[in-house]
Write a structure and sequence with these properties.
By secondary structure, this protein is an alpha/beta fold. It is built from ten helices and eleven strands. α9 runs antiparallel to α10. The chain is globular and about 60 Å long.
Length: about 350
């Protein structure tokens, strides 16, 4: 049986109840101003440094109440023991969670469901926040413009790491259809009001690290927000320092391919509602052919080509089609079985 078109283009294969998990503070009581949500998998040493930076930022701006939610996504490197020790020592409100289902998107959904803060802050486990982070965050969200997704600057944490997965622009900007959403706001430094998260819904668990499409769970979230009329804003403060640890070109090339795989799936998923993404694929194809005639590569500094983007975009689209079809078939069969039989007169 062929999958229905609308089933193939669904937002996410998660139970509908998940959309209501961020609608209000889980306890029903007023929560803190901000929730830092950190998801981790086998990065115990980087995680400890990340948490210390969040504690420092919270002490530096103590008048802003904040909490920390950490989701362990199946770590096997002593993360659980390290987190137990941190929880026993810290003066900060901390919630420790486990999410056995693999994937960053699944872990983020678990953290989002338990966060109590008015503002949700997604920080990667290899990132350290600047001591002025909460001051900057409060200034942006207390100015009355809360109905946005807002991301801040991402600097390289260690100069020995290659300059990738960073955003150093010092100019504020908002997403438009002429800008590819990938990397416009990085998922390692992404914030939003909990009402915005409730409106958009959970992260699509087919995307992101540890999932079949390997990346772009954050970019998918930006596209869904944009198509709902929710502005996506980059600000040059709210700084985090990314200690990604990749110092060899092979590691960057692998990450480059993974990002392109996810973006290809993203393009097919939003084909009907955000066809403007296709023009970015077209521009990439044109740029790839241009390389043959001496034009610049995608990243001249790291010598990254446009061609892997093209090939992995196509592979990502095929993989998304397979995932969507595999998920749609049981749903269609289940709906057919659940239809009541006609009554005999």
């Amino acid at each position: 049986m062929a999958p229905e078109p609308l089933a193939m283009m669904q937002d996410d294969p998660i139970a509908p109840d998940a959309r209501r998990l961020v609608a209000a503070s889980p306890s029903g009581e007023p929560g803190p101003f901000a929730s830092f949500i950190v998801c981790t998998h086998n990065r115990v040493h980087a995680l400890a440094a990340s948490i210390r930076s969040i504690e420092t930022a919270s002490r530096a701006h103590a008048m802003v109440e904040s909490e920390l939610v950490v989701v362990d996504n199946g770590s096997t490197d002593g993360t659980a023991e390290e987190l137990a020790g941190i929880a026993a020592r810290t003066m900060m409100s901390i919630t420790l969670l486990t999410e056995p289902r693999p994937g960053l998107a699944a872990a983020r959904n678990t953290g989002m469901a338990r966060a109590r803060g008015r503002i949700l802050i997604f920080i990667d486990d290899d990132c350290e926040v600047d001591s002025n982070y909460l001051r900057d965050l409060e200034r942006h969200y207390s100015g009355g413009d809360e109905q946005v997704i807002r991301g801040g600057r991402v600097e390289l944490g260690n100069p020995a790491d290659l300059p990738f997965t960073v955003k150093r622009s010092k100019v504020a900007a908002r997403l438009t259809r002429d800008v590819h959403p990938g990397g416009f706001v990085l998922g390692c430094n992404m914030t939003m009001h909990r009402d915005i998260a409730a409106r958009i819904g959970p992260f699509d668990e087919r995307f992101g690290a540890g999932a079949p499409l390997k990346a772009a769970e954050d970019t998918d979230y930006l596209v869904r927000a944009f198509e709902l009329g929710i502005p996506v804003e980059y600000v040059p403060d709210m700084v985090v320092h990314h200690h990604h640890g990749r110092r060899h070109r092979a590691a960057i090339e692998e990450l480059h391919r993974n990002y392109s795989l996810g973006n290809g799936g993203l393009c097919l998923k939003h084909l009907l509602r955000a066809p403007w993404l296709l023009k970015h694929f077209g521009w990439t194809v044109r740029s790839a052919w241009g390389e043959a005639f001496g034009r610049s590569r995608f990243d001249p500094e790291l010598q990254l080509s446009h061609w892997p983007i093209v090939s992995m975009n196509l592979l990502g689209a095929l993989r998304f089609a397979w995932l969507a079809a595999a998920n749609a078939e049981p749903r269609i069969e289940r709906r057919r079985v659940e239809q009541p039989e006609p009554k005999l007169r």
